[in-house]
Every structure is written in structure tokens, then in C-alpha cells.
Write a structure and sequence with these properties.
The protein folds into two domains: 12-72 and 79-174 and 384-396, Rossmann fold (3-Layer(aba) Sandwich); 225-379, Rossmann fold, CATH 3.40.50.2000. By secondary structure, the chain is of the alpha/beta class. It has a seven-stranded parallel beta sheet, sandwiched between helices. The chain is built from 16 helices and 13 strands. Helix 1 (22-35) runs parallel beside helix 2 (50-59) and helix 9 (239-256) crosses helix 14.
Length: 398
């Protein structure tokens, strides 16, 4: 429990909740950063894990934890115990809410939110929830009927079963560094267009070139014989399939491309034993925005946060959804991009090393398709998602 950031006499008190994984905490942190720009006191209620405490400490906000159990779609002996944990967490949440007296609760998802939102509803505190994925998580599904507003990460037509009166399309919050890289990209594009306008009048080909991806911080992208650069994001969850598949073709890939590979900690050791040229391996990096800005193609899972970050930098993308994601929500996310010609989507069953190599080579050789994907994926870039969420939260304080 961290109480060193004492409550000040300010205008708004906002309680935020969510956690259990980086997928919930990262966008929650972005919202906290935005809320702090106004006169707000923020209390973060989490499940007690270290990543939550680190976020609260880094943002200099109060933090308290409650006991909670996981909501599962499958049988487990823990299903017999967890309802009692949730009940304890519910009473803890009531005490915290009565003590803090927030105007609004903002819940980002994760099982810790359930007792907090339930207690908030009972105490008649206004509730805003945010759903990143096309298919709602189990906690958010329960909480949707209790919420005053439901912010969503994809366009509203992807949520036909939710009450339209509550829905707000805000998009998914992205880390501040991605917005900075996006601004640099825009500046570089404008400079490129200005230079072209100073020379000859433009042909149709010039207009196509204007839409090409320009990487403003890219000494690596164009090194070694002007190789294009590919960013492969395996990540910590479900990385083994991607890592094994790309490792089998890495020798061929690195003959033509420079490769950044974020493999996750589990596969880092064996991958690091290879001596591929034009290859940079990471178990984890906090510089992913820089690597993505330098890249011409991204290969990634279809987590909503990753997709939002890719869209912000409008990178052509191959999405490979995690096969075992809850309710296959990653496939549902990916299909939205695919339907709008914003990404290529392949299931694990469709891919082997040779087919993936062929897809990459075909795509990289098709500049028209690359440019088209870049334009279409930008349609999903919500550069002011955090501000839109803040507006919904603060509107309920009135």
C-alpha cells in the first residue's frame, strides 16, 4: 500500500482500476498521464502486483490493492475459492471508495476491476469502462450493464450487442513516445512534399510517392546496401510460434532485409546463439517506438494495444493472431484491419517458414500495396484517444 502521495484540495477525485498484465496497465498509464494535466487527484486500485505499483510510483499517484479472484471461462479448482476472494475485494473496495470519495471510477479491464466496479455501482459512483478489443473481456462484459459510459477501441459497428447510448469510440490509448514518433513522421512527410513542390509540377507517380513511408529517425533502416527493415514482435505471450517460424528463414531474410526481432525472454537465449548478419535481437525493449519508426514492415500478434501503436506510425503489417487467445479475440481484432485493407492476416495454421518467407518477399516487392496498407491502417490511428477518454471521465464529474 502506497500512501506517500497525499490527497490535495483539488477539483476532481478519480479512482482508476485495472491490471494484471501490461496490456491493461500500459493504456491505463497513458490515461493517468492525461488526467494529471487537469486538476485531479488519482487513486489507483489494483491487485497488488509489482508492475501496478511501479506504474503508480512512476506517475506519483496513490495506490491501494484489493483481494480478487480471476473470472474464468473454464473449469479450475480455483473457481471454488475465487468467489470468496472477490467478496473480500468487494468489501475492501467499498471501504476505499467511501474513504476516497471519487467522482468517477475508470476501469480498464482485468479481473481486479470487477469488485471495484460493483462496489462503485452500489455506492452510486459514476463509472467509465474501456474495452480495447473487438470481443469484450469477461470482466468488462459483466461491468457493461453497470457503466455510465463504455469507451471502445474499434469503430462502433464492431459492438452490435452493446447499448449505443453508452458507447463512445475513443480508440486505444498509445504510449506518448509513439505520438512523438508520429509527429516526426508527419513533419518528414511535409518536408518531402515541400521539396517536391519547389521543383517540377507533380505527375501521378509523384502523388503516389508522397504517400510512401518515410522514417525520420532511420540510420539503420537504410544501412548495408539500402536494405529495407522488418520489425518482428513475438512478445512474451504466444511468442514461440513466431520465433520458431522466423528463425527457420532468418538466414534468407537477412540477406535481403535488416531485421529487428523482439523475441521475449523465453526464447532469447537460443536465438542469441545464432550469428545472423543484419539482425538485432531483443528479449524486451522500451525503445519499441524507435524500432517501429525505423521499420518498413511489422510482423506482430494482434493485441489491440500493439495494433493501435502500429496504426499510429502507419506501418504495413502482417498480423498473426494468437491461436489460444480468449474467445479468439485477437483474430476478431485482426479481421477488422483486414476487412479495411489495413493489414494482411494469417492464422498459425496457414503459415510455415516457406509460406511466410514468400508472403514477406511478395509484399515487400509490391510498393503499391505497401503504400495502400500504410494509408488504410492510419484510419485506425486515434491520436487523441487518451484525451477523448479524459473528456468522458471529466464530463461525468459535473
Amino acid at each position: 500500500m502506497n500512501n506517500k502521495y497525499m490527497i490535495q484540495d483539488t477539483r476532481y477525485k478519480i479512482l482508476i482500476t485495472g491490471g494484471g498484465s501490461g496490456g491493461h496497465i500500459m493504456p491505463l498509464e497513458a490515461v493517468v498521464q492525461e488526467l494529471k494535466s487537469d486538476q485531479t487527484d488519482i487513486l489507483y486500485v489494483g491487485s497488488g502486483n509489482d508492475i501496478e505499483k511501479q506504474m503508480a510510483d512512476s506517475q506519483q499517484i496513490m495506490y491501494k490493492s484489493v483481494l480478487t479472484g480471476k473470472l474464468r471461462r473454464y473449469w479450475s479448482w480455483q473457481n471454488l475459492v475465487d468467489p470468496f476472494k472477490i467478496l473480500v475485494g468487494f468489501f475492501q473496495s467499498i471501504f476505499i471508495i467511501i474513504s476516497f470519495r471519487p467522482k468517477v471510477i475508470f476501469a480498464k479491464g482485468g479481473y481486479v476491476t470487477f469488485p471495484v466496479v460493483l462496489a462503485s455501482w452500489l455506492l452510486r459512483v459514476k463509472i467509465v469502462i474501456h474495452e480495447s478489443d473487438v470481443i469484450m473481456g469477461l470482466a468488462n462484459k459483466f461491468e457493461a450493464s453497470l457503466a455510465n459510459k463504455i469507451c471502445v477501441g474499434f469503430p462502433l459497428d464492431n459492438y452490435p450487442n452493446l447499448p449505443l447510448s453508452k458507447l463512445v469510440y475513443t480508440g486505444n490509448p498509445v504510449r506518448h513516445e509513439f505520438l512523438i514518433k508520429s509527429e516526426a513522421l508527419n513533419s518528414s512527410l511535409e518536408n518531402s512534399r515541400d521539396k517536391k513542390s519547389e521543383t517540377n509540377s507533380k505527375s501521378p507517380l509523384d502523388h503516389t510517392r508522397d504517400k510512401q513511408i518515410i522514417n525520420p529517425v532511420s540510420p539503420i533502416t537504410r544501412q548495408g546496401g539500402h536494405k529495407s527493415t522488418i520489425l518482428i514482435i513475438g512478445g512474451s505471450q504466444g511468442a514461440r510460434f513466431i520465433n520458431n517460424t522466423v528463425a527457420a528463414i532468418m538466414e534468407e531474410l537477412t540477406k535481403k532485409y535488416h531485421v529487428f526481432h523482439i523475441a521475449g525472454k523465453n526464447d532469447f537465449e537460443w536465438l542469441s546463439k545464432n550469428n545472423w548478419s543484419n539482425y538485432e535481437l531483443f528479449d524486451f525493449t522500451d525503445k519499441i517506438s524507435e524500432l517501429m519508426a525505423k521499420s518498413d514492415l511489422v510482423i506482430s500478434r494482434a493485441g489491440a494495444n500493439s495494433m493501435a501503436e502500429i496504426a499510429t506510425l502507419r506501418k504495413p503489417t502482417i498480423l498473426i493472431p494468437i491461436k489460444e487467445s480468449a474467445n479468439d479475440h485477437q483474430t476478431a481484432n485482426a479481421r477488422v484491419f483486414e476487412k479495411n485493407n489495413a493489414a494482411l492476416v494469417f492464422s498459425e495454421d496457414q503459415l510455415n517458414p516457406d509460406t511466410l518467407l514468400g508472403i514477406i518477399n511478395t509484399l515487400m516487392a509490391n510498393k503499391e500495396l505497401i503504400n495502400s496498407m500504410s494509408q488504410h491502417i492510419e484510419e485506425f490511428a486515434n491520436y487523441e484517444a487518451t484525451k477523448a477518454i479524459k473528456v468522458e471521465i471529466l464530463n461525468l464529474t459535473k
